[in-house]
Specification:
heterodimer, A: alpha+beta, Alpha-Beta Plaits, 5 helices, 31% helix, extended, B: alpha/beta, 2 domains, 13 helices
């Protein structure tokens, strides 16, 4: 039931415990209890909204930064990752296999703000060897959902 | 001038759904729960295979009965899912949707005056196809108290010396009813005893919930008397590709190929290439869609029970078939008034046969968000009209 609830709300966090219980053939109480547990165990970490900011007035810039670091003795990459993700500008941080170590995704109001952050906050950190900043030009799909084209129901209204 | 029209064709009534479609199309902001096709797009890897076949210039006719590779995959699939063994060469034909298979199987089997048993409520095309093939349709009225299953008693009471074919449309559109193993045992016995043939339309076979679909062809001695029809429209969300198939005794399939050869030539080539991919790698898609339908099904039934609408639990297809008799309206009145006042389109049960009177077909091939809005509106409607 936990798995079922998670996959149902993965793409739609607006579903209420009542909806979920009807969809999954359970009771509202059971679903509510499980969701509470999942939140307490931080398996469910939050309920953000997927927004296509490009369609709004507000200016936003996203950059993906490849970061090479020297791991610290006894702490590996976790400590340095934490120092990075604590900045509010940082949207996501992933530890990577391959040619570099961390992927850092930054959101800022302008290219200048992002550049400033990289040069004054990120690059100077002691453990960081190098950074390579890539700006996002257009977002097509996020969290499994296309942001670009609007989908309308093209089916005929009534068919046998 | 002479009358240019055939009497047989003129006598055939246009589909009851058509009339309702015209009313709905006038309403711009109506929510429809009236469609008989999936809301999912065809999975991308299947579409991509279709595009690729076009890029490669595979734009020619295929052999009449279909691409060899596709026929082999169809037989593999039937073996994998239902433990059925068919020869891909002599016992398989690829058709333009399940619809064509219905038409040509009847035309291959009927002589004038042969009677065909059609359990109703059912899909709209069996009856006209029987008439066009020169046969005589005999309706069996299925009952809500039997969960719209066909019973042995009903079957035996409808058989005459002229009965040749039984159409078995399960999982059923519009009722969502399925025939389970135990339900089929008796049917099989009677079919054999009375020396009938069966056209089993199993287009919704992948869409059953909590109970696996059983094909009547799985029963010993039934493969020889069954034309099994299936296709890609419902299970892989490929309605617009127009691709289906039939398997059965080689003697019947050979005659069907003959009609198909002269009337159609072959099923669309692009669709056939896409269908190979669907059968090879589409199982996870089918499962994903089935799970989604099941959630919506449970959601709808739950909602109907909460608002006090009488509704048996359907285990197949993507329809629920609630009863509205307690409101004292006909299906047509209910559907028309609901559309006018709450802008929700549903299909009156009568579109699928007279015995659908008092019922509505409600499709759950829609997102939960969509269903939610529709249910609120139906609830408002019921509150207004429910008799105290």
């Amino acid at each position: 039931m936990r798995e079922k609830i998670l996959s149902a709300i993965d793409k739609n966090s607006k579903l209420t415990a009542k909806d979920l219980s009807a969809m999954l053939g359970s009771t509202e109480e059971e679903v509510a209890t499980i969701i509470k547990q999942l939140e307490e165990e931080t398996i469910i970490c939050g309920y953000p909204t997927l927004i296509n900011w490009d369609k709004t007035e507000s200016e936003k810039v996203t950059a993906l930064i490849e970061v090479k670091v020297t791991p610290q003795r006894g702490q590996g990459f976790d400590k340095i990752a934490e120092r990075i993700y604590k900045f509010d500008e940082v949207e996501s941080v992933y530890l990577m296999s391959g040619g570099f170590d961390l992927t850092v995704i930054i959101e800022g109001k302008s290219m200048k703000e992002v550049a400033n952050f990289v040069s004054s906050k990120l690059a100077p950190m002691e453990a960081i060897l190098s950074t390579a900043t890539h700006f996002v030009l257009k977002k097509y799909k996020e969290h499994g959902m296309p942001l670009v084209h609007e989908k309308s129901d093209e089916r005929m209204l009534i068919t046998p | 001038m002479r009358n240019p029209l055939s009497k047989t064709v003129v006598e055939i009534q246009p589909s009851g759904i058509r009339k309702f479609f015209d009313i709905v199309s006038e309403m711009k902001d109506a929510i429809s729960l009236g469609v008989g096709e999936p809301d999912f797009d065809t999975p991308w890897h299947i579409r991509e295979e279709g595009i690729y076949s076009l890029e490669k210039g595979r734009t020619f006719y295929t052999s009449n009965a279909g691409l060899k590779e596709l026929k082999i995959e169809i037989c593999n699939y039937l073996h994998r899912r239902y433990d059925l063994h068919y020869d891909s060469n002599s016992e398989t034909i690829v058709t333009v949707g399940g619809s064509e298979a219905i038409d040509i199987s009847l035309r291959a089997m009927l002589d004038p005056g042969d009677e065909v048993l059609i359990p109703q409520p059912c899909y709209v095309s069996y009856l006209p196809c029987v008439k066009l093939a020169g046969g005589k349709p005999v309706i069996i009225e299925l009952k809500a108290e039997d969960q719209f299953k066909l019973t042995g008693e009903q079957l035996i009471n409808s058989i005459t010396d002229k009965t040749k074919v039984l159409i078995l449309p399960f999982p059923n559109n519009p009722t969502g009813a399925i025939m389970e193993y135990e339900d089929l045992v008796e049917i099989v016995k009677i079919v054999k005893e009375k020396d009938l043939y069966v056209i089993s339309d199993e287009i919704y076979s992948e869409l059953t919930y909590g109970k696996k679909h059983v094909s009547i062809a799985e029963f010993p001695g039934m493969k020889e008397r069954t034309i099994l029809i299936n296709g890609f429209s419902k299970s892989y969300a490929m309605t617009g590709w127009r691709l289906g198939y039939a398997v059965g005794p080689s003697s019947i399939i050979a005659e069907m190929i003959k009609i198909h050869q002269f009337a159609i030539m072959c099923a669309p080539t692009t669709s056939q290439y896409a269908a190979i991919e669907a059968l090879k790698n589409g199982d996870p898609d089918v499962e994903m869609m089935r799970d989604a339908y099941d959630q919506r099904r449970k959601y709808l039934i739950h909602a109907f029970h909460e608002m006090g609408l009488d509704c048996f639990e359907p285990f197949g297809a993507f329809y629920v078939f609630p009863c509205i008799k307690s409101l004292g309206m006909t299906s047509d009145e209910f559907a028309t008034t609901l559309l006018k006042e709450e802008k929700v389109a549903v299909v009156p049960g009568t579109a699928f046969g007279d015995c659908g009177e008092g019922f509505l077909r409600i499709s759950y091939a829609y997102s939960i968000e969509n269903l939610k809005i529709a249910i609120e509106r139906i609830d408002n409607f019921l509150k207004r009209y429910k008799k105290v």
